[in-house]
């Protein structure tokens, strides 16, 4: 059987150190570099760069090539590394709270929000431009929103910068429109006040003229009333038929019997109270000697033959021109006509 050297033992003999033959477990395996303080482990994990899908794919290709020629040992090693990579990615995702597949979605959402904000800015600009028509220059606002037509090339940050410039221009335009409206309101108010003042002045002037005219008429009537009866022609004690017609009409014109003698004397000189009297040299005719005689047609169609129609027209003429028969008589006495 031969001699056994040191360290050799017969087949089936017990091992002198049974503990050396035990398979290491997670509890008995030596721990060296894998055991770290919690804070240090978290720090190293945060510093690791995220593994992208492309890196994982490349790793898979390399591993597949290695598997083709290295057998089960290499395959097992790759499987272990792949599990470690998966664990690392999961750890990074858990730490950052952001999944890598979400990054593209976040960019799309950000661009959508920026585009919506741009649409709102364009609407504000269009509203301001419409309100400024005919009031203020809106060129600056129109220029400010022009880049929004190519917002896809601007990017999110540039879109928000453009919105800020557009809103600033809209603010300036709105202020200009408000100033225009303020001045326009002042102008309209001033014109209205001027028109009201002019109307008031015209009304006051008309009232003053009417009052002056009434005062003059009252003065004339008072002067006539104050005239001494000695200066007035006496009324006939036995008036003719035509004179009696005139006497009966005096009250309808607002006169009393004190005016009767004046009208009698006035038309005595004019026509002698003859309804057929006619002045061939002047064309005057009738009792009041209307010039031309056809004027009396305004008092009635029978003016040429009816003394009452002629007298009514003649009394109306005296009232409108002199105010009373005695005033007409005084004018006739001074001028020889009335």
Give a summary of the structure in a few sentences.
The protein is mostly helical and 338 residues long.
Which features would summarize this protein structure in a list?
338 residues, 62% helix, mainly alpha
Q: How would you describe the overall organization of this protein?
A:
By secondary structure, this protein is an all-alpha fold. The protein has 3 domains: 32-96, no CATH class; 104-194; 241-335, no CATH class. The protein contains 10 helices and no strands. The chain is rod-shaped and about 155 Å long. The model is unreliable at 1-13 and 18-78 (pLDDT under 50).
SS class: mainly alpha
- Say how many strands there are: 0
Average pLDDT reading: 76
Could you tell me the radius of gyration in angstroms? 63 Å
Distance between the termini: 189 Å
Counting DSSP H or I runs of 4 or more residues, the number of helices is 10
DSSP strand content: under 5%
In total, the number of domains comes to 3
What is the 3D shape?
A: rod-shaped
Task: Summarize the helix and strand pattern as letters.
Answer: HHHHHHHHHH
Helicity range: 55-70%
| pLDDT < 50 runs, ≥5 residues | 1-13, 18-78
Described by strand count, sense and barrel closure, the largest sheet is: none
**Which oligomeric form is depicted?**
single chain
């Amino acid at each position: 059987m031969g001699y056994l050297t040191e360290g050799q033992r017969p087949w089936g003999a017990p091992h002198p150190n049974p503990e050396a033959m035990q398979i290491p477990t997670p509890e008995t395996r030596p721990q060296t570099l894998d055991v770290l303080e919690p804070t240090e482990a978290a720090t190293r994990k945060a510093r690791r760069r995220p593994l992208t899908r492309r890196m994982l794919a490349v790793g898979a290709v390399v591993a597949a090539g290695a598997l083709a020629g290295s057998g089960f040992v290499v395959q097992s090693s790759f499987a272990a590394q792949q599990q470690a990579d998966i664990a690392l990615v999961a750890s990074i995702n858990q730490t950052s709270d952001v999944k890598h597949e979400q990054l593209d979605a976040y960019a799309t959402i950000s661009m959508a929000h920026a585009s919506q904000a741009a649409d709102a800015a364009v609407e504000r600009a269009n509203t301001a431009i419409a309100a400024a028509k005919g009031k203020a220059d809106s060129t600056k606002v129109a220029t400010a929103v022009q880049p929004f037509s190519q917002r896809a090339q601007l990017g999110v940050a540039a879109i928000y910068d453009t919105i800020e410039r557009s809103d600033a221009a809209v603010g300036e335009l709105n202020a200009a429109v408000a100033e225009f409206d303020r001045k326009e309101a002042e102008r309209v108010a001033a014109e209205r006040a001027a028109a009201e003042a002019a109307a008031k002045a015209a009304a006051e002037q008309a009232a003053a003229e009417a009052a002056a005219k009434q005062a003059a008429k009252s003065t004339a009537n008072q002067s006539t009333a104050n005239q001494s009866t000695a200066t007035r022609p006496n009324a006939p004690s036995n008036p003719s038929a035509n004179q009696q017609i005139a006497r009966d009409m005096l009250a309808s014109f607002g006169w009393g019997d004190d005016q009767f003698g004046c009208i009698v004397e006035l038309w005595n000189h004019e026509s002698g109270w003859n309804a057929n009297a006619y002045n061939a040299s002047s064309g005057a005719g009738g009792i009041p000697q209307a010039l031309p005689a056809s004027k009396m047609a305004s008092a009635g169609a029978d003016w040429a033959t009816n003394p009452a129609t002629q007298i009514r027209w003649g009394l109306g003429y005296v009232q409108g021109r002199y105010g009373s028969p005695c005033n007409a008589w005084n004018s006739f006495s001074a001028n020889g006509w009335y």
